[in-house]
Amino acid sequence: MRSVLDDLDRTILGVLLRDGRVSWKDLAADAGVSPPTIRDRVKRLQDIGVVQRFAVELAPSAFGYTLEAVVRFRPLPGKRHILEQQIRDTDRIVQCDKVTGEDGFVARMFLKDITELDPLLESFGRMATTNTAIVKTSPVKMRPPPF
Predict the structure, then answer these.
(1) DSSP assignment of 23-75, as one string?
(2) Considering the entire predicted model, what is its pTM?
(3) Residue percentage of the chain with pLDDT more than 70
(4) Could you say which of 1.10.10.10, 3.40.50.20, 3.90.550.10, 3.40.50.1820 is the CATH number of the domain covering 2-47?
């Protein structure tokens, strides 16, 4: 994929990562090309799968979520598929990865306060054992791969 991207593509991606709502005009000015060229390049980046979507990032605290937890789920025998569906259906789980090793899944969830943790985890008790850590800070937020 790296060979498909040229310097203009990298400039466009850098600007879009800083501000996904930037106008074509401003993006073109930053990149030193015309707005039609920018539109074509962004469309091409979408068509080849480099740009997958444009998104809004919400502040969990704006909705009263003051804690974030990382939960490792170790499925009980024969319960992996049921556990996966329960994880999908739990709206407090905002991200989850299916992983190798003893844990089957590693998830992130938001909590309004610590009293919400046990009831949420207890709902998984018949499917998995859990190991939980409360997030203190995130020195590296989710970031794009180097390009």
Answers:
(1) -HHHHHHHHTS-HHHHHHHHHHHHHTTSS--------GGGGT--EEEEEEEEE
(2) 0.82
(3) 98
(4) 1.10.10.10
